């Protein structure tokens, strides 16, 4: 390698008062706009809830799928009468109610986490989460209402 | 002539291409890849190749390095897509028949070429109070500790603050508000030190929305650590300490 091979790139000679160097974007340091440190254990309870509800959901969901899709004739047996028969028992009402609440809250918390991790702008993050909470509350309330007010004689 | 050929046949040198991510804000707003093909002994390290390029080919190539022996933690960079120390990575281990890519670590603002702004990284480090906090009178002798108590946090004392773990963490990449593995490792080092009395305060700091609960246990940090620290395990131990403290 001789000196004639040296390639001079990136000279700052092009920089002049008429052609100033571009401003380097400030790093993502903690500034006055950075959200304040949070007190309280919300994130810890959220983390614990995901693990505990996950364990319970494994039992509830696999049981649900077995009953609905595999045992006793599979999916073809599921009809209005079948659902009405199951919901006549408080046990299956409770099963479905717990499964609904746990699955919805588990899923919503998971999506909240995904939004927090992936949304880059605060506005996007806020509105995605509002949409998520609205959808969650709507589904949970509607499902709960149906389980409690289900009328087998509706026809 | 024959003698020269015989010598070159026995030469340990190979031709390797280094594909380096170049960025100079005074020249262009965009970063570009630039290839440098050099003759180098594959038993040398990537840092030696960078030196050779900077000293013999292009003096404007900019990177950080200090001790060049894996202790100072200055030259963490993304080599062939993985965070490593340039001074601990041998060229022969990188399949040098293909171009070897060298990029700055991700998630921190690039200032020039391979140099990034480390301020957010060290801010998170300072936030966990990485120093001994005790009460009462200072002892006139050493603060004694049993071998077992010392062993408890031995793994996390190895950190050299190179940022390879934090800048490999996808949660940190998003908005840089997450404390990051390195800060948690250094908090762990004091939380589990029997001589320290501010473990509770550090746990409270890491109980924050951007604290340990944002960890997704992807193990990128453990894979990236050039010191072989079990980073994810340390983070999980802090989580467990937070939960057992409450219940």
Using brief descriptors, characterize the structure shown.
A: 155 residues, mainly alpha, 3 helical TM bundles of succinate and fumarate reductases, 4 helices, B: alpha+beta, Ubiquitin-like (UB roll), Fumarate Reductase Iron-sulfur Protein, Chain B, domain 2, 2 domains, five-stranded mixed beta sheet, 14% strand, SuccDH_FuR_B_TM-su (chain A), heme (chain A), SQR/QFR_C/D (chain A), iron (chain A)
Task: Write up what this structure looks like.
The complex is a heterodimer of chains A (155) and B (247). The relative contact order of chain A is 0.08. Chain A has a domain at 42-149: 3 helical TM bundles of succinate and fumarate reductases (Up-down Bundle). Chain A is 61% helix and 0% strand. With 155 residues, chain A is mostly helical. Chain B is α+β, with helices and mostly antiparallel strands and 247 residues long. Chain B folds into two domains: 3-116, Ubiquitin-like (UB roll), CATH 3.10.20; 119-244, Alpha-helical ferredoxin (Fumarate Reductase Iron-sulfur Protein, Chain B, domain 2), CATH 1.10.1060.10. Chain B has nine helices and seven strands. Chain B has helices at 2-10, 46-57, 119-127, 147-152, 170-175, 181-191, 199-206, 220-224, 231-246; strands at residues 14-22, 32-40, 76-79, 82-85, 100-103, 110-112, 115-116. In chain B, helix 3 runs parallel beside helix 6 (181-191) and helix 6 packs across helix 9. Chain B starts with a helix and ends with a helix. Classes of the chains: A mainly alpha (155), B alpha+beta (247).
């Amino acid at each position: 390698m001789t000196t004639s091979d040296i390639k001079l790139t990136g000279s700052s000679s092009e920089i002049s008062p008429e052609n100033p160097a571009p401003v380097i974007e400030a790093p993502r340091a903690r500034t006055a706009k950075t959200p304040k440190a949070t007190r309280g254990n919300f994130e810890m309870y959220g983390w614990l809830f995901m693990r505990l509800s996950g364990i319970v959901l494994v039992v509830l969901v696999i049981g649900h799928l077995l009953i609905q899709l595999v045992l006793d004739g599979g999916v073809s047996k599921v009809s209005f009468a079948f659902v009405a028969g199951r919901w006549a028992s408080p046990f299956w009402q409770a099963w479905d109610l717990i499964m609904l609440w746990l699955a919805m809250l588990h899923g919503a918390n998971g999506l909240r986490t995904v939004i927090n991790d992936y949304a880059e702008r605060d506005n996007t993050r806020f509105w995605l989460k509002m949409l998520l909470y609205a959808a969650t509350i709507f589904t949970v309330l509607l499902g709960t209402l149906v389980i409690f007010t289900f009328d087998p004689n509706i026809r | 002539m024959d003698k020269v050929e015989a010598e070159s046949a026995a030469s340990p040198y190979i031709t390797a291409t280094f594909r380096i991510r170049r960025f100079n804000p005074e020249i262009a707003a965009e970063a570009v890849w630039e290839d440098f093909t050099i003759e180098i002994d594959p038993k040398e390290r990537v840092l030696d190749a960078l030196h050779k390029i900077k000293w013999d080919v292009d003096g404007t190539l900019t990177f950080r390095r200090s001790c060049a022996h894996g202790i100072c933690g200055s030259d963490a960079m993304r080599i062939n897509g993985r965070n490593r120390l340039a001074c601990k990575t041998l060229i022969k281990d990188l399949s040098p028949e293909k171009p070897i890519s060298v990029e700055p670590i991700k998630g921190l603002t690039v200032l020039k070429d391979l140099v990034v702004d480390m301020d957010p990284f060290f801010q998170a480090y300072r936030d966990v109070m990485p120093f001994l906090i005790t009460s009462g009178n200072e002892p006139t002798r050493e603060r004694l500790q049993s071998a077992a108590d010392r062993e408890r946090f031995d793994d996390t004392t190895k950190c050299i603050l190179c940022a390879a773990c934090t800048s490999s963490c996808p949660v940190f990449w998003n908005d840089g508000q997450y404390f990051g593995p390195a800060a948690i490792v250094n908090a762990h080092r004091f939380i589990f030190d029997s001589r320290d009395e501010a473990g509770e305060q550090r746990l409270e700091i890491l109980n924050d929305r951007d604290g340990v609960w944002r960890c997704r246990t992807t193990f990128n940090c453990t894979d990236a650590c050039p010191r072989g620290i079990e980073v994810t395990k340390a983070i999980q131990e802090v989580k467990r300490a937070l939960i057992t403290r409450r219940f």
